[in-house]
C-alpha cells in the first residue's frame, strides 16, 4: 500500500513537493517522537512538523482537548465569532507571554499559516506608521505569500499606501560566516552598519514601517542571534520610532529553552508573529501587538479561517502543558547536553564545521575540510554531504531535515518531550550516519 501511495503522489502532486521527496516513507501512525511507516519501520522524528509539534505526535493532552471539543458540539468553523474556545486560547496565550508585553497587547487572529501572520503584522505596522518598506535580515525566512493583496481590487482593505515598499536587508549576526567577521566583534560591526545606514541621508533608506527578525533563524540554518545584538536592534528601532516585529513562528512555545525566545534577551517587541506550535499540531496563527499599534478599522484585515475551534483548544492545552511541566527549562538543559555531545563529535569529525543553536533548536553545519577556509576562517559548506547524511539518518531510523545556505545545515528540532533514551538514540544514529556518509 505504501509503495502505491508514494507512486501516486509522485505522479499527481506538484513538482515542488519537498519533505515527501526527502523522506520517501508513508507514515501510518505516530506517537511522541516516533513515526511508524506503512512498511512497519519506526523513525525518530527530529523534524517535528518543522518545529510544530512541541509535545510530539498525538500527545494525550492534545488529543484529549480535541476530543473534548468535538464531544461538546461546539461549531468547528465560525470565522472570527466569539467562542469559549477562542476566549480560553487567548487567555492561555496572554498568560504565557512576557508580562511587559502581554499587559498592553492585542491579539489578531489571522489565516492559519505563519506567513499569514507575517503579512498581517507588516500591514498593521504600515497602517500604524503610514510608511512602507521594512528592515529585514540576510538569511531570514518569514513565509511564502506574495501578492494576494496586490491583485485585490478593494482599495479600502489594502494598506494605506499600496504595495509593501522596499525591503532593506541588514546582515544577521551569523557568527560562523559573518560578513563583518566572526564572533562578538562581527555582531558589533553589524549593529554599527545598521545604525549608520539608517541615519545616512545619502544611504537610500526611507523610514520603514517595521523591522522584522527571528531570534534564532530556523530555515536560515539555525543561527541564534546574540542577546546583546537583539538588545541593540531593540534600541536602534526604539530610538528611531521603528516598530519591531519578532517572528517567533518557529522559536515559540519552549523550543529555545524559554517559553518565548525574546525572554533570553529581555527585549520587548512591538509585535510578535506566532504560529506552528501554538495550534498544538493544528493550523493556527496570530499577531500579538502593543495596543498603541491597534490602528485598523473593523474589517481592515480579514480572512475566512481566523482561528479554528479545534486548533484553539489544542493550542491552549499545549501552551498550558508546556508551562506547567517545565518543558522549556528541560529544553534548555537537553539542548546544552546535546550541544556538548555534538561538539565532542565535532572534535572527531572535521566535516562538522559548526555546532550551534538554542534549546532544542540545534544545527550542525557540514563543511568540506579538504577545501581552503573563507575570509571568516570557515571551510566551504558541503551540501552534497548533507544530503547523504540525511539519507543515512533515514536508513538508521532518524528523520532530520536540512536548511541554511546551500542546505548544508542539519537541523534538529525534536519534540520538547524527547526522553533521555531518545536523546541517546538520536546522537548515536546521527554520529553513525555522519561518519558513514563522510567516509
Ligand atoms: N516564520 C518563520 C520563522 C518560519 O520558520 C516559518 C515556517 N518555517 C514561517 C514564518 C512561515 O510559516 P508557514 O510555513 O506556516 O507559512
From TrEMBL:
What the entry lists under Gene3D superfamilies is as follows: Aspartate Aminotransferase, domain 1, Type I PLP-dependent aspartate aminotransferase-like (Major domain)
**Pathway terms, separated by semicolons:** Amine and polyamine biosynthesis; ectoine biosynthesis; L-ectoine from L-aspartate 4-semialdehyde: step 1/3
UniProt-listed Enzyme Commission number(s): 2.6.1.76
Protein's name according to its UniProt entry: Diaminobutyrate--2-oxoglutarate transaminase
Q: Which domain of life is it from?
A: Bacteria
Which PANTHER family does the record match to this protein? DIAMINOBUTYRATE--2-OXOGLUTARATE AMINOTRANSFERASE
Which Pfam families does this UniProt record tie to the protein? Aminotran_3
Mind listing the UniProt keywords for this protein, alphabetically?
Aminotransferase, Pyridoxal phosphate, Transferase
Cofactor entry: pyridoxal 5'-phosphate
